[in-house]
Amino acid sequence: MGMRILYFAWVREAVGMPEEIIDPPPEAVTVGALIDWLATTSEGHARAFADRDRLRAAVDQAFVGLDASVRGAREIAIFPPVTGG
């Protein structure tokens, strides 16, 4: 059973898909480690994740930092910072 990864805004455009189901390696235990691993999977992923300061994440629909655990997570969302208006 894979983990669902959702991409939004320019992250989605760079990766080239809105979502994917992945089976991350055992060492990808945090959001940051997962992003590092995803960055190795394609040129689009590498572009999207080149500047981690421009990324935000949610684990199972809860906003988290990049040091948050992904163990047991069903869904990870990766997106640019959200600005209010």
Describe this structure in words.
The model has no long low-confidence stretch (mean pLDDT 94). The protein is built from three helices and five strands, in the order E-H-E-H-H-E-E-E. The chain has 85 residues and is α+β, with helices and mostly antiparallel strands. The chain has a five-stranded mixed sheet with strand order 2-1-5-3-4. Helices cover 25% and strands 25% of the residues. A hairpin with a 2-residue loop joins strand 3 and strand 4. The protein is globular.
Relevant terms:
85 residues; 5-stranded mixed β-sheet; 25% helix
Please write out the topology.
Elements: E1 3-7, H1 9-15, E2 19-22, H2 31-38, H3 43-48, E3 56-59, E4 62-64, E5 75-79
Parallel strand pairs: 1-5
Antiparallel strand pairs: 1-2, 3-4, 3-5
Contiguous runs where pLDDT drops below 50 for at least 5 residues: none
The first-to-last residue Cα distance is: 39 Å
**What Rg, in angstroms, do the CA atoms define?**
12 Å
Strand-residue proportion: 15-25%
Helical stretch count? 3
Q: Give the spatial strand order of the biggest sheet.
A: 2-1-5-3-4
Shape: globular
What characterizes the major β-sheet? 5 strands, mixed
Order of helices and strands: EHEHHEEE
Helix percentage: 10-25%
Number of strands: 5
Q: Which class best fits the helix and strand makeup?
A: alpha+beta
Q: What do the pLDDT scores average to?
A: 94
